[in-house]
Amino acid sequence: EFPAGDEGYHTYGELTEVLQRADSEHGDIASLSSAGSSYQGRALHLMKISDNVAQDEDEPEVLFTCNQHAREHLTTEMCLRIVERFTDEYGTDPTVTELVNTREIYVIPSVNPDGSEYDIEGGRYKGWRKNRQGYYGTDLNRNWGYKWGCCGGSSGSPYSDTYRGTSAFSAPETRAVASFVESRVVGGSQQIKAHIDFHTYSELVLWPYGYTYSDTTDTMSREEARRFQEVGRKLAASNGYTPQQSSDLYITDGSVNDWMWAEHGILSLTFEMYPASGGGIGGFYPPDERIEPETRRNDEAVDILLTEAGAQP
Ligand code: 0X9
Ligand code: CA
Ligand code: CA
Ligand code: CA
Ligand code: ZN
């Protein structure tokens, strides 16, 4: 459980309950399933939100993922807010209603439920980052299959916090989310047009690539790079974060955004949420009073990305 005073955060069990309630109370627009199972067997909850939710309609699809890193609990709350806002405000808020009617929204609130539960075991934060595979775990955001382990942006040592795993997609969690994304290729075309992977912390909007300092590559044209920059800056203008290319922060290989863009052409960004700086490990554990303001802060960015998913590049 969460430490005393931080009960506003949701444990995996509480997250499951909230999602099941949203599914049953909003059955016409919300459908809860699972993308697969974690290493320890927890369901990787997958919420779809759209009008006529039981049908696969020809609407731009958008994916939000949270909590790849165990200790980044604020991100789980971000995905929960997306679920609650697009269900509870449907039919009331005109922007929400329009987006639910014209998009298919997918939310995976916890990509790393095993690590997250371990991090709060005994009511004390452990500063845990990876999943719980093997003794030391794998950094899920170094385990994706595009240029896995290529470039010094991950570690081959199981003790490292950026351990990339034994092979690309060796973690059941990344394999499951990747398989879900692959399942959205319909008639040869990827239906998911845009994606945000939420992390903490530093208040950044990051776009690919992470594996190279180059702005352009054979899979990132000048026009495509410019679109990432334009969208990234627009998103950052809405929430006050700093926009930059991922590798401007540091080189990572095997990160989710690189795979989503290179393999599926998905406009995929990382948000590093509150706080901007300071606190070292404490920066991962803002008091639960910060949940509401710091998740609300991204409402407009979420709407912008959903709108952008309908724009033809
Ligand atoms: O290192 C990560 O996976 C992310 N930062 S975190 O502090 N949440 O661990 C950043 C990933 C963004 N990608 C690159 N910087 N290439
Ligand atoms: Ca509190
Ligand atoms: Ca629909
Ligand atoms: Ca569809
Ligand atoms: Zn992270």
Task: Describe, in short, the structure shown.
It catalyses: Releases a C-terminal residue, which may be hydrophobic or positively charged. The protein has 313 residues and is of the alpha/beta class. Helix content is 34%, strand content 17%.
Provide structural commentary.
The structure is a single chain. By secondary structure, the chain is of the alpha/beta class. Helices cover 34% and strands 17% of the residues. It is built from 10 helices and 10 strands. The strands form 2 sheets. It has an 8-stranded mixed β-sheet with strand order 1-2-4-3-7-10-8-9, sandwiched between helices. A hairpin with a 2-residue loop joins strand 5 and strand 6. Helix 1 runs parallel beside helix 2 and helix 6 runs antiparallel to helix 10. The longest helix has 18 residues. It is globular and about 50 Å long. The chain starts with 11 loop residues before the first helix and ends in a 5-residue tail after the last helix. The model has no long low-confidence stretch (mean pLDDT 98). One calcium ion binds next to loops.
Features:
single chain, zinc, binds zinc ion, protease, 313 residues, two-stranded antiparallel ribbon, metal-binding, binds N~2~-sulfamoyl-L-arginine, globular, binds calcium ion, metallocarboxypeptidase activity, hydrolase
